[in-house]
Write a structure and sequence with these properties.
It is a single chain. This protein is mainly α and 285 residues long. It is 57% helix and 4% strand. The protein is built from 13 helices and three strands; from the N terminus they run H-H-H-H-H-H-H-E-E-E-H-H-H-H-H-H. It has helices at 3-14, 20-39, 49-61, 66-86, 112-120, 125-137, 141-145, 175-185, 208-222, 230-243, 248-255, 260-263, 265-281; strands at 152-153, 158-162, 168-172. It has a three-stranded antiparallel β-sheet. It is globular. The termini are far apart.
Length: 285
């Protein structure tokens, strides 16, 4: 079987446990590997550790960041494990392959007053409901655009969301988000799709890109950091909870993280905040 066919087969299997974003990223990364193998006249069955080291060296010479290289090699590792399980490779050539160590940057987050300014800059009731829901529930943008009306229990202030790996969880929304959602859902929809919570101008389900565009407008209007993205509101949600005394395990549940190590990055943000308070307030700081 040709390399491209094996990649398609692997990605088809990956869709059962990973998000569309992950599948798209892995396709780009593995197509890059396939192009390298073709250029070097290496068959997939003959691929070994030495070849992968050469591929890794090629990535480094392109000046890619360590995080970008690590992501590509993560895709290659998963692909190689799949090939071994399927019998296309006798041994895993990526098993002991070292990749550049990455220092995970602290995610951008907004202060509580900045969140207020951002939400006040919303252009209409739909946009306000979107921003309130992203922040009030700590949702990923994919979780937000995937919401259907049947997923909302506004009386209980709960939304059923589908996260990474199609795992479901119940996300509390908070009073502000519930009020703005009620206001948005009362507006006439015309012939628009009746199922999604959020629609675009064509009356179909709003896309992640559509959310990013409306956020860019609100950020500009509010005069906030232009790097602010939909995920920034999720980061802000977690940071503010920890700042106000929430337990790390509780925040992990609210975010839908499988591994608490993923949530622990927010403790560093809160620690930085505490250090700033200390340095500005303590007489011997």
């Amino acid at each position: 079987m040709k390399t491209a066919k094996w990649i398609d087969r692997f990605l088809e299997r990956l869709t059962q446990s990973s998000s569309e974003h992950t599948v798209r990223a892995y396709r780009v990364d593995l197509n890059e590997l396939a192009a390298f193998l073709t250029e070097e006249k290496i068959s997939l069955a003959a691929m070994n550790r030495r070849h992968l080291r050469a591929f890794l060296a090629r990535l480094k010479t392109r000046g890619l960041k360590a995080s970008s290289i690590a992501r590509r090699m993560a895709a290659v590792r998963s692909f190689c494990r799949f090939l071994v399980r399927e019998g296309a490779l006798k041994a895993d050539p990526a098993g002991a392959l070292r990749t550049p160590r990455t220092q995970r940057p602290l995610p951008l987050h907004l202060g509580e007053q900045e969140i207020e300014k951002l939400i006040d800059a919303a252009q209409n009731s739909r946009d306000r409901a979107i921003l309130e829901t992203l922040y009030g529930g700590g949702l990923r943008v994919s979780e937000l655009v995937g919401l259907d009306r049947d997923d909302l229990d506004l009386r209980g202030g709960i939304a059923r969301v589908r996260g990474k790996g199609k795992r479901e969880r119940l996300a509390p929304l908070g009073g502000s988000a519930v009020r703005t959602l009620k206001a948005w859902l009362k507006e006439p929809r015309g012939d628009g799709d009746p199922r999604p919570v959020f629609l675009n101008r064509r009356g179909t389900r709003l896309s992640s890109r559509g959310v990013a565009r409306l956020l860019e407008t609100a950020v500009l209007q509010a005069g906030l950091d232009p790097r602010t993205s939909p995920h920034t509101l999720r980061h802000s949600f977690a940071t503010h909870l920890l700042d106000r005394g929430a337990d790390l395990r509780e925040v992990q549940e609210l975010l839908g993280h499988q591994n608490i190590a993923t949530t622990q990055i927010y403790t560093h943000i809160s620690l930085e905040r505490l250090k700033q308070v200390y340095e500005s307030a303590h007489p011997r700081a």
